Amino acid sequence: MVLFKYKNRKSQSTPEVMLGVGIIMFLFLLVAVFTLNHQIKLGETEDYIEKRSECLKIVNLINSVYISGPGTEVETHTDFLITAFNGSMVSVETLNSVEEYGDVPRIAFLASESGPTLQSFYDRVNLELDPDPDWYKNCFSDIGVSGCDQTPWMNTRINRTIHDLMNNLDNYNTIYLEDATLNYDHYATDYINRLEDWVSEGNALILSEHVFCSESTYGPFSNTSYRCENALPLDNDWEMFGINLHQRFSDYYYFPSHQYNVVVENTNEAFDLAIGDQLSFEERPYVNNDVSTTGYEAESLSLNGGYYSSSVCSCSSPSAGRCARNTGTSGTQANISLNNFPETTGEYEITIRYCDETDDSGNPDDYSFYINGNLNHTWQSTNGYGSGEIWREETFNLNLNSGDNLKISGIRSSNTGTRVDWIDLNPLSEGLDNEFTVIARYRNSSYMSDSRNQPAIAYWNYGEGKIFYFGDFYVNYINIPTKQFSQVLVDLISVAYYMVAHPERESDITCHFSAFAPYQQVFGDIKIKNENNYIILENVNETQ
User: Fold this and answer.
1) Half-sphere exposure of 506 (CA within 13 A, CB side)
2) CB 61 within 8 A of CB 76
3) How far apart, in whole angstroms, are the C-alpha atoms of residue 250 and residue 439?
4) Model-level pTM greater than 0.70?
5) Average pLDDT in the 152-175 region?
6) pLDDT in tens, 163-173
7) In angstroms, rounded to a whole number, what is the distance separating the alpha carbons of residues 161 and 128?
8) Which of helix, strand or coil describes residue 328?
9) Are strands 374-380 and 333-338 parallel, antiparallel or unpaired?
10) Distance CA 45, CA 42 (A)
11) Which of 167, 252, 325, 414 is deepest in the core (most CB within 10 A)?
């Protein structure tokens, strides 16, 4: 008899089965993860599309109500939180933002007797910013009698001082200091340190006119004076917030309303300004960082072919009292040369100031710019006989290398001198543009040779925050006379909060509109209405 012994194969088949099950489960998990990831992306896309559609709907309604004129009203419903920022911006967020981000911009203003700050500006700010901002003041013992004697409205309407503001910085995320005139001898160093720390935490600081006291030789001065005596040379140059502040004073009569000295060259949604706008500042303070404009008086460079240094410049008031004048043979090229360019390699904005004369008798002067003997740019004079002699500026951008030989050539007509006053070379490096953005520069005035081509309006990053600078508050608009500069500042102040305090809010979608609306948040059933070309958004249920 043969006996068969059963052999259990379970121990051999179990690992194979488990391996197969494991592979199936792994494939299932891959499919599940892919599906989930796809659903998340699809959800994010749908969320973006819904918010973008809602944003465009609200913007279109705002624009249509504005175009239809005062008294126009529309009602709509939204499932999102709609935030209108002063100026031209709307954001759309989910409704949980009401609790998470429901705090309105916390803004403080400093009014100064040194400016002085105008009551009309105070009234405008309170009218257009909702809720009203907190106000502080800075008074001086040697302006008028004492204690804002020159501006009595400050005493009746503003109780708290600049010292109170410095102790309350944490209450705000946007602060505007007009002509603060901080007394460096007594408290400015401490206050600047506090402001630097405050801005670094992600807040917005807006500066206008003179930040520090005016240096003087008379002293000593009290801590309530607008003047101070510093150990440094009396040139009113200061360092703060990573840049250089140059407090340049001037006589307003040098800058009448018909003569511009500031030109807008850059802008963004925070500024109610357009490229090419011409402004006339009362004074000429400016800011810059370590990379600054290099300027040369033409008469101090190498001259040949008929050019020589002259005080007979045809156009009035040349910089430093002289110019390079060409008395060589008409139709023959004369040269002004800068050999072995001493600055760093990069792209430069080149500005050449030349005299456009009246006596070219229809035969324009020809100018050329060469780099290492190669022609790079040409232009001609534009005045006909009797049109009036005037300094003009020719501006163009070129790449320059350290050590290059630069040359300006002039070919005169029979009666002219192809006169050149100066050449400025402004670096346009990528790093400078990223860290320090210039909105407008000083231009075209022989009375401001040290401020020429320097930043009059600019902003820059400081830590997690931003600093905005306006060289002067008192300004005339030349080509846009109906615009009020105080309105530009109000718009900037309100939008600055959004630019600084909201970058971390990645869930919101923004759109721009062409009307003006105050800061406000609405949701649910809302009404959009036009009150004297001023757009109001409100929750319907809250107003009935």
Assistant:
1) 2
2) yes
3) 21
4) no
5) 91
6) 999 999 988 88
7) 23
8) coil
9) unpaired
10) 5
11) 325
The burial class, CB within 10 Å (0-12 / 13-18 / 19+), for 81 is buried
Residue 253: which pLDDT band, with cuts at 50, 70 and 90? very low
R_g of the chain computed on alpha carbons: 32
Distance CA 295, CA 424 (A): 4
Q: Within a 10 A sphere around the Cβ of 176, how many other Cβ atoms?
A: 25
Q: Output the CA–CA distances (angstroms, integers) from residue 151 to 113, 125, 165, 472, in the order listed.
A: 6, 18, 19, 19
DSSP 244-257: EEE-----GGGS-T
User: CA of 400: how far to CAs of 360, 369, 370, in Å?
Assistant: 33, 12, 11
Dihedral in degrees, nearest 10, Cα atoms 116, 119, 123, 125: 0
Spatial distance between the Cα atoms of 216 and 254, rounded to a whole number of angstroms: 23
Count of beta carbons in the 10 Å neighbourhood of residue 220? 9
Comparing CA positions, the residue from 417, 490, 480, 392 lying closest to residue 176 is: 490
Stretch 52-81: mean pLDDT: 86
Contact (Cβ atoms closer than 8 angstroms) between residue 327 and residue 403: no
What is the token pair recorded at 265?
């060259």
User: Which residue matches tokens 């909060």?
Assistant: 497
Q: How far apart are CA 74 and CA 61, in angstroms?
A: 8
Length of the chain: 544
- Contact call for residues 244 and 237 (beta carbons, < 8 A): yes
Burial code (b: 16+ CB inside 10 Å, e: under 16) for 271-305 equals bbbeeebbbbbbbbbbbbeebebbbebbbebebeb
SS3 label, residue 340: coil
Phi, psi of 431 (to 5 degrees): -60, -40
Q: Are 336 and 324 in contact (CB under 8 A)?
A: yes
Which tokens go with 444?
């075209």
Residues in a beta bridge with 530? 535
pLDDT per residue as tens digits for the range 315-349: 887 887 889 999 888 888 999 999 988 877 778 88
- List C-alpha distances in Å: 368 to 326, 337, 363: 14, 12, 16
> Using an 8 Å Cβ cutoff, are 385 and 464 in contact?
no
List all residues 6 or more positions away from 79 whose beta carbon is below 8 Å from its beta carbon: 54, 95
Q: Identify the three-state secondary structure at position 90.
A: strand
Tell me the two tokens of residue 234. Answer: 């009396």
